[in-house]
Amino acid sequence: MDLAEFNRLPADDARGILRPCLDVDRWIDAIVDARPLADLDSAKAASSAAAPLTTAEIDAAMSHHPRIGEKAKGDSAEAAHSSREQAGLGTLEADVQSQLAAGNAAYEDRFDRVFLIRAAGRTPEEILSELQRRMDNTAKDETAEVGQQLIQIAELRLEGILS
Fold first, then answer.
1. Which of 64, 92, 98, 115 has the fewest CB atoms lying closer than 10 Å?
2. 62, 146 in Cβ contact below 8 A?
3. Per-residue model confidence as pLDDT tens digits over 50-104
């Protein structure tokens, strides 16, 4: 779908297109209400205007994200997006896979949610380094960082939809 087609959609249809990018009504409404969008930068500006996400929005949106290094389950649009985004990680070496699994478990124990990071464009080593760095975050700082990562992921998905 291109941007002109997206701009012409009825609002409810546009919301349905956006929901797999980030299942946060306020974010979706910010983009739908900004139409007609002149270009992708306008769409990203509308997306960024919804930041920061609230803790409740983050918690709801996180229910759609698998652990990093694990395949998304199901055949939903969210699962398809996640599979494409993590495809760049390739087949992980056993050592990297075990470090990610241990890091994921430690992160979940500490923050009571799965570790979320924009995987697209990152190597497994960069992801591990970020996971380790973020373990030192306070709960408040980590929640804010998760919100930023959700927006980054959403913008990548939005770009993929509107290109």
1. 98
2. yes
3. 999 999 999 999 987 888 766 656 565 554 555 455 545 556 677 888 898 999 9
| Domains defined along the chain, listed by start | 3-162 (1.10.3330.10)
Tokens standing for residue 19: 């929901």
- Using DSSP, how many helices (H) and how many strands (E) does the chain show? 9, 0
Quick check: 151 pLDDT over 90?
yes
CA 16 to chain centroid, in Å, comes to 17
The whole-angstrom separation of Cα 95 and Cα 101 is: 10
